Write a sequence for this structure.
């Protein structure tokens, strides 16, 4: 029997029976970046805590049953709260994943803070060229908290990364027994353990104590089929997000242009709408060569092209389903390749 295709409960049962040797288990590399999952508080019941205080060795030691799932090794890529996630860490992480994916590893897990996890997941979804499972996980409670959610999330993430059925589904996020796709995941609550949810497309699947049930794959191009690359890239183009609201003028749009933004994404009203003053400033920015994308601050639905604004005449891009923060990521990568508006709009339809 090929034990490498056994997953979840079946694999654990065979381990208990003594019929699976450690060297027969899948290989999973865990890359740690910090976040609440590596956080520490003064007591088990203190709400306040400091992110990124615990190293990858301590995270793995807190989940001894990992040895029943996979051969795990860990690397500390960064140790920051994800509010401080930055381009340097992104580029380092993506390049390291692409290196590891070329080895005999079966899957990769990234531990990460929840504040920007949806952004990091989507960035990796676009620039990691492998069909091997890449799984992000984190926690809403620090490692020192009573009933910390991190250990089980790590356990499930490793189980998913070791699961051959997870191959080809793109970058995924595991939390609270759920499997989210990188393109769809949204953080919806400031503090609840159940903060993550997936928008109109729904979950990739569920995972409970290592046992995964898959509902779907990814609907768009990603990972090994992506044409985006960060090989040789040391800097990403500046793209700013400008929030629309009642009575907004074009001052912040104008300011973004002045400080050198190559692109602007609007977090718009409704179907990507904005005031006349904002439209005027954004159109001027577009005429000056800044690529402008209309997105929406509304969490679900899509921003359609040429619906309430004439995108063709104004020189705007419609974000479709992408949130402002994910539209920003796609635009930054697109600008590494082209400034052609038609091609960039095609990217938004494809990725």
């Amino acid at each position: 029997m090929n034990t490498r295709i056994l997953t979840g409960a079946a694999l654990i049962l065979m381990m208990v029976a003594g019929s699976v040797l450690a060297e027969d288990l899948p290989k999973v590399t865990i890359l740690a970046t910090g976040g609440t999952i590596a956080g520490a508080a003064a007591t088990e019941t203190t709400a306040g805590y400091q992110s990124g205080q615990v190293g990858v060795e301590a995270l793995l030691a807190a989940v001894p049953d990992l040895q029943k799932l996979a051969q795990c090794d860990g690397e500390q890529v960064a140790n920051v709260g994800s509010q401080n996630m930055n381009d340097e860490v992104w580029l380092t992480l993506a390049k390291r994943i692409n290196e590891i994916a070329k080895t005999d590893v079966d899957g990769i897990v990234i531990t990460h803070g929840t504040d920007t996890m949806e952004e990091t997941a989507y960035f990796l979804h676009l620039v990691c060229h492998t069909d091997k499972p890449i799984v992000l996980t984190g926690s809403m409670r620090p490692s020192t908290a009573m009933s910390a959610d991190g250990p089980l999330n790590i356990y499930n993430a490793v189980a998913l990364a070791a699961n051959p059925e997870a191959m080809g589904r793109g970058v995924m996020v595991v939390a609270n027994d759920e499997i989210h796709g990188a393109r769809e995941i949204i953080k919806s609550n400031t503090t609840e353990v159940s903060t993550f949810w997936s928008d109109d497309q729904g979950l990739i699947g569920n995972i409970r104590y290592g046992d995964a049930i898959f509902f779907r794959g990814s609907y768009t191009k990603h990972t090994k089929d992506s044409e985006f690359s960060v090989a040789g890239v040391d800097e990403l183009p500046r793209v700013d997000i400008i929030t629309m609201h009642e009575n907004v003028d074009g001052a912040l749009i104008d300011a973004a242009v002045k400080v050198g933004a190559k692109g602007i994404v609007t977090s718009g009203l409704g179907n990507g709408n904005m005031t006349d003053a904002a439209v005027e400033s954004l159109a001027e920015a577009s005429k000056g060569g800044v690529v402008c994308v209309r997105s929406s601050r509304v969490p679900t639905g899509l921003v359609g092209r040429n619906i309430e604004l004439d995108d063709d005449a104004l020189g705007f891009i419609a974000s479709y389903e992408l949130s402002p923060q994910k539209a920003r990521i796609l635009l930054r990568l697109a600008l590494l390749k082209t400034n052609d508006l038609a091609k960039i709009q095609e990217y938004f339809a494809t990725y």
